[in-house]
Design a protein that fits this description.
Shape of chain A: globular
Number of strands of chain A: 0
Helix content of chain A: over 70%
Helix content of chain B: 25-40%
Largest sheet of chain A: none
Distance between the termini of chain B: 18 Å
Number of domains of chain B: 2
Shape of chain B: globular
CATH topology of the largest domain in chain B: Rossmann fold
Largest interface: A-B, 20 and 25 residues
Low-confidence stretches of chain A: none
Mean pLDDT of chain A: 89
Number of helices of chain A: 12
Number of domains of chain A: 2
CATH superfamily of the largest domain in chain B: P-loop containing nucleotide triphosphate hydrolases
Strand content of chain B: 15-25%
Distance between the termini of chain A: 15 Å
CATH architecture of the largest domain in chain B: 3-Layer(aba) Sandwich
Structural class of chain B: alpha/beta
CATH superfamily of the largest domain in chain A: MetI-like
Largest sheet of chain B: 6 strands, mixed
Oligomer: heterodimer
CATH topology of the largest domain in chain A: MetI-like fold
Radius of gyration of chain B: 19 Å
CATH class of the largest domain in chain A: Mainly Alpha
Number of helices of chain B: 8
Radius of gyration of chain A: 23 Å
Order of helices and strands of chain B: EEEHEEEHHHEHEHEEHH
CATH class of the largest domain in chain B: Alpha Beta
Strand content of chain A: under 5%
Mean pLDDT of chain B: 88
Chain lengths: ~260, ~260
C-alpha cells in the first residue's frame, strides 16, 4: 500500500461530491424532461422541498424522537439482558448445554415476521417496538458476551487465581473487561439492529415514528415521502455510527493501535 | 507424585509426569530443566495448586497443597499482565485482591515500580511497554505481596539474549535481598546453572526425575560473568550429558506429534 501513489484526501472528496451532484442532476433532468415518471421516483428538488418543510415545521423531529426512544430503550434493555444471560451461560456450563438448542432456534426465527405478533401482544405503542428491538439486540450481545467470557485468556485467569482473586474479583477485573472488548466490537452491529427493529415495528403497526411516516407515505402512493423518510433514517444511522466509533476508541484505549 | 490427563478422543490417559519426587529447602533457588513437553510446566501448575494432583502429594511446610496458596507467587511464561490495567494497577492488583487498603498499598506499589526501574511508566498500559519491561511488571506484581515461594515458568524464554541477561541479574539481586524460595523452570541449561543452587534434570515425557545436581558456584553471581568460572564448563558438561539423550527422545516424540 505504501508503495502505491498516495491519493490525496481532497481529491477523493471531490470525486465523491462530483459523482453525487452528477447523479442528482441526471435524476432531476430525467424526471423534468419526462424520461422517467416522477410519480415513481420523485425528483431531487421536490424531495429537498419536502425535507425542508419537515424540518421547518418540526414534524420530522417528533417522529424521529419516537423512533430513537424505542431504539435506545430497547437497545439498553437488550444489552443488559444479553450480558447477563451470556455471562450466566459462560459460567454454568450445564445451563449452556441445556438451553443451547433453544437459543439457536430462537435466534434462527425471523424477527421481522414476529413483529405482527408483538404488536398483537403489546399493542400499537412503544412497548411492542421495544420488545422487537430487544429480540434483535439480545442475541448479538448474548453471543458476543458468551464468546468473550469463554475465550478469556487462560493465563490471565490462572494469574488472577494465584494473585488471590475471589470469584467477585474475577468477574470484575478479568471476565467482564475481557468480554467488554467483544461486546464493543459487536456494538455497531447491535445498534444498527436496534434501529431496524424499531422502524420495522413502526412500519407494521403504529401511529407515530419514522416507520409510520414511511408506511403512511407509501399508503398514499407518495414516493417523495418514502424517500425523504429513508434519507432521514440514513442520516440518523450515520450520525449514530460516527458517535459509536468515537466511543469504541475511548473504551479500547488499552488495545494496540492496528 | 504422578499427573495424568484424560484424552477423551483417544479413550486413554496421557501421563504428563510420573513418580516425580524431590524437595526444595526454604530460601533455595532450584531449577528444573528438561526437554520440551516433559511436564515441567505441569509440575509447576501442580505445586501452585492450579490443578489437583492425580496421585501422590505435594506439601508446603508439611501441609498438603489443596488449591491456590496465598503464600505463593507465580511468574508465567507469557507475561500474564492485565491489558486493560495500567502498570501501577497491575502491580497493585494482588494487594487489592488481598484487601490491602489503598493508603498502604500505594507506597508498596511505588516502591516496587521504582525497584524494577519503571518509575514514570505508572500510567502506561502493557501494550505500550517492551517485552523486558512487561516481564519486570510481572515480576513486581508477584513480589509486591511478598510470597514465600516463587514459581517461575520459563519466565525469560521470549526475551532477547541481552534483555534476558539483565533480567536474570535483576532476579538474582532480588533473590539475594529477599531470600525467597524459587522454583525456576527452564529448558536453557546455561541459565539454570547461572541462577541455581540445585538443578533437577527431568526425562522426556512422561517426565521423571533423572538426576539432581548441586551447583556449588560462588555467590553473589552475575550471569554474564559466572560463565567464565572454571567450574561452569565442568558442570555444564556433566549435566548436558544427562540432558542430551532426553532432548533427543523428546524431539523425536514431538516429531511424531504426541500430545503435550
Amino acid at each position: 500500500m505504501s508503495e502505491a501513489r498516495k491519493v490525496s484526501r481532497a481529491e477523493i472528496y471531490l470525486w465523491r461530491l462530483g459523482l453525487l451532484l452528477a447523479f442528482l442532476a441526471l435524476w432531476e433532468v430525467a424526471t423534468s424532461r419526462g424520461w422517467v415518471d416522477p410519480f415513481f421516483v420523485s425528483r431531487p428538488s421536490v424531495l429537498a422541498a419536502l425535507l425542508a418543510e419537515w424540518i421547518s415545521t418540526g414534524f420530522i423531529f417528533r417522529h424521529l424522537w419516537v423512533t430513537m426512544q424505542e431504539t435506545i430503550i430497547g437497545f439498553l434493555l437488550g444489552t443488559v439482558l444479553g450480558i447477563t444471560v451470556g455471562f450466566l451461560f459462560a459460567r454454568w456450563e450445564k445451563l449452556a448445554l441445556i438451553f443451547d438448542p433453544l437459543m439457536v432456534a430462537l435466534n434462527a426465527m425471523p424477527r421481522v415476521v414476529l413483529a405482527p405478533l408483538f404488536i398483537l401482544w403489546f399493542g400499537l405503542g412503544l412497548t411492542s417496538k421495544v420488545v422487537m428491538v430487544i429480540s434483535l439486540v439480545f442475541f448479538v450481545v448474548f453471543f458476543s458476551t458468551y464468546t468473550g467470557i469463554r475465550e478469556v485468556d487462560r493465563d490471565l485467569v490462572s494469574n488472577a487465581r494465584i494473585l488471590g482473586a475471589t470469584p467477585g474479583h474475577m468477574i470484575r477485573h478479568v471476565l467482564l473487561p475481557s468480554a467488554l472488548t467483544w461486546i464493543f466490537s459487536s456494538l455497531r452491529t447491535s445498534v444498527g439492529f436496534a434501529l431496524i427493529g424499531a422502524v420495522v415495528g413502526e412500519y407494521l403497526g403504529s401511529h407515530e415514528g419514522m416507520g409510520y411516516v414511511i408506511s403512511y407515505a407509501e399508503a398514499m402512493f407518495n414516493a417523495t415521502g418514502v424517500l425523504a423518510g429513508l434519507l432521514v433514517l440514513m442520516a440518523a444511522v450515520i450520525a449514530i455510527d460516527l458517535g459509536l466509533k468515537r466511543l469504541d476508541r475511548r473504551f479500547s484505549y488499552w488495545k494496540p493501535v492496528r | 507424585m504422578t499427573q495424568r490427563f484424560p484424552l477423551p478422543r483417544e479413550g486413554r490417559e496421557f501421563t504428563a509426569v510420573e513418580g516425580v519426587s524431590f524437595s526444595v529447602g526454604a530460601g533455595e533457588f532450584v531449577s528444573i530443566v528438561g526437554p520440551s513437553g516433559c511436564g515441567k510446566s505441569t509440575l509447576l501448575g501442580l505445586v501452585a495448586g492450579l490443578v489437583p494432583v492425580t496421585a501422590g502429594r505435594i506439601t508446603l511446610d508439611g501441609q498438603p497443597v489443596s488449591g491456590v496458596n496465598p503464600r505463593l507467587g507465580f511468574v508465567f511464561q507469557r507475561d500474564a499482565l492485565f491489558p486493560w490495567k495500567t502498570v501501577a494497577q497491575n502491580v497493585g492488583l494482588p494487594l487489592l485482591f488481598r484487601g490491602v487498603d489503598a493508603a498502604s498499598a500505594g507506597p508498596r506499589v511505588a516502591e516496587w515500580i521504582a525497584r524494577i526501574g519503571l518509575t514514570g511508566f505508572e500510567r502506561y498500559h502493557p501494550h505500550q511497554l517492551s517485552g523486558g519491561m512487561r516481564k519486570r511488571v510481572a515480576l513486581a506484581m508477584t513480589m509486591v505481596y511478598d510470597p514465600e515461594i516463587v514459581l517461575m515458568d520459563e519466565p525469560f524464554g521470549a526475551l532477547d539474549v541481552q534483555t534476558r541477561n539483565l533480567m536474570e541479574n535483576d532476579l538474582l539481586d532480588i533473590w539475594a535481598q529477599f531470600r525467597r524460595t524459587v522454583v525456576f523452570v527452564t529448558h536453557d541449561l546455561e541459565e539454570a546453572i547461572a541462577l541455581s543452587d540445585r538443578i533437577v534434570v527431568m526425562t522426556a515425557s512422561p517426565g521423571r526425575v533423572k538426576a539432581i545436581y548441586p551447583i556449588d558456584l560462588p555467590r553473589p553471581r552475575s550471569v554474564t560473568e559466572i560463565r567464565f568460572h572454571p567450574d561452569f564448563g565442568r558442570l555444564y558438561e556433566t549435566i548436558w550429558k544427562d540432558l542430551k539423550d532426553e532432548v533427543r527422545v523428546g524431539y523425536e516424540r514431538s516429531q511424531k506429534s504426541l500430545p503435550g
